[in-house]
Structure formats: structure tokens, C-alpha cells
């Protein structure tokens, strides 16, 4: 029996895999990854492309719902979208990118294991998407770092809710007028969307909760909004901004325009208009600034620390680098005046992410890139239950219609059908049952009870403190 020789030849080289690194899991990071999953489905299946998403949190936070989460209208787990569930075609890494050397196509990151091992990770890539978002812009105000509370994350929103209810508990349990006044004084600094909506929702919640306290009345609480400029909510227009001030003052909220916070040291708030009063709650929502990782790259930045980008969302003059959202200075091609940039808000970020995903796929296939062009359609804001303002397509709405539009719009924008259904179900249940006014502040220090039982000193803060 003769066996014929089989000539196998030289095995072909495996196809080169293109790694797309997405820094950030917020609006731009999530929506860009979703778009790339869809546009590069065949390449991902063949192993010709890989998408890596690096995010400090395993979820994306839908920030417009944070005020309602703080007020108890929405469960905190329903305002976040789990990245691993929706990005099944991507490799999700929980960590923080600390620096980027784009010339070498490498990123340095700290992962959850870095604290244990003391070693950072080096991650190589072919295409870079920078979308780390922004961080709170703070000022060197005495006492702010020690006593201020932010409002950008779901943890901060729920922590603030617990804090407000705990202050009501403190006021209810003492006859000392100084302690009561400080506990029932709530100061919000910043008259943008975050500050006004958080104040409106929490004041509404606290007013409702007061009915269950025998010695705390709504009129005992002092709610103060401090804004350095001469108007609030500039995005909804001057007329709606004036209406918002009138509406807040009608609810006995002290709105102070052209006023700055000068100090909150020792829990005593000092304002630029000469006002001075004790307060145990200072919420800081006075703007944001670019994420510090942008300064740790070799990519071009503008004067405000944002990445210089082209209308196609590529980093200007740098191949294989892309950006959008808060981190990017994107030219507004729809604006009449030259040099104007798109506003760093969610409306642009979501739309930019879709164009960005398409352009990366086009670039890999040597196709022409698409220009990002979107005319700003307006804004909506909630001022509490059944109260709101809106300026959309030139039309101005206030009260219930604006509040209803706010809910419909953001329900349509929150990612995944799962989250839409859960949020809608919670709204429906909230219309049938009473508000939840329970503080779960002890969740922030889960080991305190066990440490006390074991004879040690509990770490963190004791119950009822802030």
C-alpha cells in the first residue's frame, strides 16, 4: 500500500488584530463601544478586532436621573448601566488610566489589583478613544475639601439623601437651637442643572418627610442656592431662568445671585454678600473641569485643558487618536460664529459617540469620515415632583408640562430597554404609593457594628453623624 505525501505548505499568517482602547465608561465610552460592537461585528467574530474599555466603575451612570435617585423616586441601581452586560463583545477592565504615550501606543493603568501588587499595567493599542469625562471643579475655599459634598456620582447622590434625612433626625432629637439651625440649613453652590435639580428634588423630599417628624416643620428648614453669576439655568434661556428663581423663592428657597461661597470652615458658611451662618450641609455643583489624565498624555490640548479635535472627532493632527464629550474641544460646524465649540453636555456626547464609532469603523476600512453636526435643540430641567422648566425648539414650557417632558425625554435616552422598563415601573409605583424616607447611611460603614461587637473602635463615622 502506497501512501501519498500530503503537501501542507507554509501556514498562512494569522490576521492582525486591531485593538481599540476606549478610556472611560461614561456616555461617550459606552455608546462608542456599543456602536463599534455593531459596526465591527464581523471583524470581532473573526478575531481581526478587539475592543477594550477601561473604566474606574463597572457601570455607566445616567446622571440626569441622579436628582430623582437622591429624592428616592428611582432606585440607585436603576440609574446605572452595567458595562459587562451590555458590552458583551468588549473586554471591560476596571481600572484608571494614569498616563498615555500615544507615540508608543501604550497606556499605563492602575487596576483593582494594583494596590495589592504595587505594580501598574501597560496596555498597548492601535486606536485610542479618550472619553474619561470630567471631574468637579473645586476652588481653594477654606473648609470645602473637609465638608463639601459633590453631586456627580450615584454614590454621592445616595450619600446626600442619607445625609439630609440624618440631619432631620439630628434636629428632631435635640432642643439646642444652634444644633437644630445648623442641621436644618442646606446650602447648594452652583446654579446649573446639577445644583438646581438636586436642590429642587431634595427640598421636595424633605418637605414630604417633615410630616413624619413631630417637631420638624418645613418652615424650620433653610434651603439656600448660591450662584456667582446673575442668572441660573442659562441653558433654558433668560426668561425660564427668571421663572425658576421665582418658583424656587415661592417655595421659601433663598436664591442668592452674584454671590460666592468664601468659606465653610468649622461648618460655618460665609458668603461674599456678608452673610454668615452655621450649616452642616454644603453641596458643591459649581462646574466641572477636564479629567487629569488628559494632561498626562502627549496629545494636544487647548487653553482649557481639553483635547483639540476635528469635526470628524479625531484628535487634531494625531493619527489613530479620537475623542468626544467633556474631554474634547469639538468645532461646532452648525454655529454662525467661527471658532465656537460644541457644549460639553450629554446631548452632544451621546450623538458624538455614534459618529465616533462610525468613523473609527470607516477609518479601519479606508472609507471617508463623517462630520459631526448637531444643532442644539434646547434643554429641560426638573424642579421637583410635577415642577419643571423647558426650552425646546424655541418653545418654552413650565410647571407640569415641562416636568412631564423632562421625564419622557430622559426615559427615551437612558440606555437599554431593561433600564427603561425598570425606571418606568418605579415611576408608576411611586404614583400609587407613598415616598420612601428611610436613611441607609449605615451602608457606608458596613463593618461598624461588627467592629463594635468585637471590642474594637468602629471605623468611619458613627450613626447620625456626617
From TrEMBL:
Pfam families given for it?
Answer: Pyr_redox_2
Q: What is its EC number?
A: 1.6.5.-
The FAD/NAD(P)-binding domain covers 19-353
Q: Which UniProt keywords apply?
A: FAD, Flavoprotein, NAD, Oxidoreductase
Molecular function terms from GO: oxidoreductase activity
Q: Which domain of life is it from?
A: Bacteria
Q: Would I find Iron-sulfur among this entry's keywords?
A: no
Q: Which family does the UniProt entry place this protein in? A: Belongs to the NADH dehydrogenase family.
Enumerate the PANTHER family for this protein.
NADH DEHYDROGENASE, NADH DEHYDROGENASE-LIKE PROTEIN RV1812C
Protein name (Swiss-Prot/TrEMBL) = NAD(P)/FAD-dependent oxidoreductase
Amino acid at each position: 500500500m502506497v501512501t501519498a505525501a500530503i503537501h501542507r505548505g507554509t501556514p498562512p499568517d494569522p490576521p492582525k488584530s486591531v485593538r481599540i482602547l476606549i478610556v472611560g465608561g461614561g456616555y461617550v465610552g459606552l455608546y462608542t463601544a456599543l456602536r463599534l460592537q455593531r459596526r465591527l461585528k464581523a471583524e470581532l467574530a473573526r478575531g481581526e478586532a478587539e475592543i477594550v474599555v477601561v473604566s474606574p466603575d463597572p457601570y455607566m451612570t445616567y446622571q440626569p436621573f441622579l436628582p430623582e435617585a437622591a429624592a428616592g423616586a428611582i432606585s440607585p441601581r436603576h440609574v446605572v448601566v452595567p458595562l459587562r452586560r451590555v458590552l458583551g463583545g468588549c473586554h471591560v477592565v476596571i481600572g484608571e488610566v494614569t498616563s498615555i504615550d500615544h507615540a508608543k501606543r501604550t497606556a499605563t493603568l492602575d487596576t483593582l489589583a494594583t494596590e495589592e501588587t504595587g505594580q501598574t499595567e501597560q496596555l498597548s493599542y492601535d486606536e485610542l478613544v479618550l472619553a474619561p469625562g470630567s471631574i468637579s471643579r473645586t476652588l481653594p475655599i477654606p473648609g470645602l475639601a473637609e465638608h463639601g459634598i459633590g453631586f456627580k456620582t450615584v454614590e454621592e447622590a445616595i450619600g446626600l439623601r442619607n445625609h439630609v434625612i440624618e440631619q432631620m433626625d439630628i434636629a428632631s432629637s435635640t432642643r439646642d437651637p444652634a444644633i437644630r439651625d445648623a442641621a436644618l440649613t442646606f446650602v447648594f453652590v452652583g446654579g446649573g442643572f446639577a445644583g438646581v435639580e438636586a436642590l429642587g428634588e431634595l427640598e421636595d423630599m424633605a418637605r414630604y418627610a417633615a410630616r413624619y417628624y413631630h417637631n420638624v416643620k418645613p418652615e424650620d428648614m433653610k434651603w439656600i442656592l448660591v450662584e456667582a453669576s446673575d442668572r441660573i439655568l442659562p441653558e433654558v434661556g433668560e426668561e425660564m431662568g427668571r421663572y425658576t428663581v421665582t418658583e424656587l423663592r415661592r417655595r421659601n428657597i433663598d436664591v442668592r445671585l452674584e454671590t460666592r461661597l468664601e468659606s465653610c470652615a468649622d461648618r460655618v458658611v460665609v458668603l461674599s454678600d456678608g452673610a454668615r451662618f452655621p450649616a452642616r450641609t454644603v453641596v458643591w455643583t459649581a462646574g466641572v473641569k477636564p479629567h487629569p489624565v488628559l494632561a498626562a498624555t502627549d496629545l494636544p490640548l487647548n487653553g482649557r485643558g481639553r483635547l483639540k479635535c476635528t469635526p470628524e472627532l479625531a484628535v487634531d493632527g494625531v493619527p489613530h487618536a479620537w475623542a468626544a464629550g467633556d474631554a474634547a474641544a469639538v468645532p461646532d460646524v452648525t454655529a454662525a460664529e467661527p471658532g465656537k465649540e460644541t457644549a460639553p453636555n450629554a446631548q452632544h456626547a451621546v450623538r458624538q459617540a455614534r459618529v465616533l464609532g462610525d468613523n473609527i469603523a470607516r477609518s479601519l476600512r479606508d472609507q471617508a469620515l463623517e462630520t459631526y453636526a448637531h444643532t442644539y435643540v434646547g434643554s429641560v430641567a426638573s424642579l421637583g415632583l410635577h415642577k419643571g422648566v423647558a426650552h425646546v425648539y424655541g418653545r418654552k414650557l413650565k410647571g407640569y408640562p415641562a416636568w412631564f417632558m423632562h421625564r419622557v425625554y430622559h426615559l427615551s435616552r437612558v440606555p437599554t430597554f431593561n433600564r427603561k422598563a425598570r425606571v418606568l415601573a418605579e415611576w408608576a409605583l411611586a404614583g400609587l404609593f407613598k415616598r420612601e424616607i428611610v436613611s441607609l447611611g449605615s451602608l457606608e460603614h458596613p463593618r461598624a457594628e461588627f467592629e463594635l461587637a468585637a471590642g474594637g473602635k468602629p471605623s468611619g463615622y458613627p450613626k447620625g453623624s456626617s
